[in-house]
């Protein structure tokens, strides 16, 4: 029988994993999923995700796909796959997809959130927040700075070199970038067409420096326009970052 493409949705606590992308020695999310697929199908099956998350980064919704021969309903494949996954990785849905679908290249946007805790986060939250001690952030100034990053720009100044000779297109569009406080919790939320390597963590680090007064809001615009990575700010820690949603175009209705 011909292979079928399967579109899968999962969430994970990234604390114990070495990031998404497979690597020698294992320990990544991709390795865990591919190991389970090998046990089911008896052969190596490669999975392709919407994007790579770094070690310690979490996801409420990551999307990946793979091709395989499966004679049963997609739900039975989901049950077989999820039963052997490690703690901290949860498969929520498996559906059949058109052969033209690609988890990464079919995506039209993503939503990320970054969590900051003013003070010391309690034990059950500590792995999901960047605890910043007694510093109180100026949310108004952070939003003023965030507004300078909205729209289509070259985000080279807010990206890191992944290595390996790969180079992403630095021109991205941010549709949303906002900062809000609820009690001691500060949430930075962004939606965009795509993101460079470490882009959200670098934006969060820069906005944090604005919130503490280390950088002025107008400096964010100047840094953006420089199109050059500088040491004026550093990336925020991985543990506060969540991939929340991956957006895809709705399929066109079939004509009758």
What does this structure look like?
Helix content is 21%, strand content 30%. It is of the alpha+beta class. The chain has two domains: 4-97, Alpha-Beta Plaits; 108-246, Pseudouridine synthase I, catalytic domain, C-terminal subdomain (Alpha-Beta Plaits, 2-Layer Sandwich). Strands 1, 2, 3, 4, 5, 6, 7, 8, 9 and 10 form a ten-stranded mixed sheet that branches.
Key features?
Alpha-Beta Plaits, 2 domains, 21% helix, single chain, alpha+beta, ten-stranded mixed beta sheet, 256 residues
What is the arithmetic mean of pLDDT? Answer: 94
The name CATH uses for the topology of the largest domain is: Alpha-Beta Plaits
**End-to-end separation:** 29 Å
* Total number of distinct structural domains: 2
Main sheet specs: 10 strands, mixed
Unreliable stretches (pLDDT < 50, length at least 5) are none
Q: Provide the structure class.
A: alpha+beta
At CATH's second level, what is the architecture of the largest domain? 2-Layer Sandwich
From the spread of the alpha carbons, the general shape counts as globular
CATH superfamily of the largest domain: Pseudouridine synthase I, catalytic domain, C-terminal subdomain
How would the blueprint of this fold be written?
Layout: E1 4-12, H1 29-41, E2 48-49, E3 58-68, H2 74-82, E4 89-97, E5 107-117, E6 130-131, H3 139-147, E7 151-154, E8 171-182, E9 185-192, H4 199-211, H5 217-226, E10 241-248
Parallel strand pairs: 3-10, 5-6
Antiparallel strand pairs: 1-3, 1-4, 2-3, 5-9, 5-10, 7-8, 8-9
């Amino acid at each position: 029988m011909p292979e079928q493409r399967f579109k899968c949705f999962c969430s994970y606590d990234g604390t114990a994993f070495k990031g998404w992308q497979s690597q020698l020695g294992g320990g990544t999310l991709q390795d865990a999923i591919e190991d389970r697929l090998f046990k089911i199908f008896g052969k190596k099956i490669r999975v392709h995700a919407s994007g790579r998350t770094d070690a310690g980064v979490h996801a409420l919704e990551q999307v990946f796909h793979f091709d395989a021969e499966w004679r049963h309903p997609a739900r039975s494949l989901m049950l077989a796959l999820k039963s052997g996954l490690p703690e901290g990785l949860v498969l929520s849905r498996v559906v059949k997809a058109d052969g033209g679908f690609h988890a990464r290249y079919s995506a039209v946007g993503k939503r990320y959130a970054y969590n900051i805790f003013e003070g010391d986060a309690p034990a059950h939250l500590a792995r999901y927040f960047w605890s910043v001690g007694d510093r109180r952030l100026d949310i108004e100034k952070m939003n003023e700075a965030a507004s300078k990053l909205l729209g289509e720009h070259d985000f080279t100044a807010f990206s890191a070199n992944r290595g390996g000779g790969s180079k992403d297109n630095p021109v991205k569009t941010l549709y949303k970038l906002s900062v809000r406080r609820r009690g001691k919790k500060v949430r930075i939320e962004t939606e965009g067409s795509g993101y460079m390597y470490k882009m959200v963590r670098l934006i969060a680090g820069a906005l944090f420096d604005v919130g503490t007064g280390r950088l002025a809001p107008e400096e964010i615009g100047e840094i953006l326009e420089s199109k050059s990575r500088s040491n004026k700010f550093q990336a925020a820690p991985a543990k506060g970052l969540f991939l929340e949603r991956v957006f895809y175009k709705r399929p066109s209705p079939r004509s009758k």
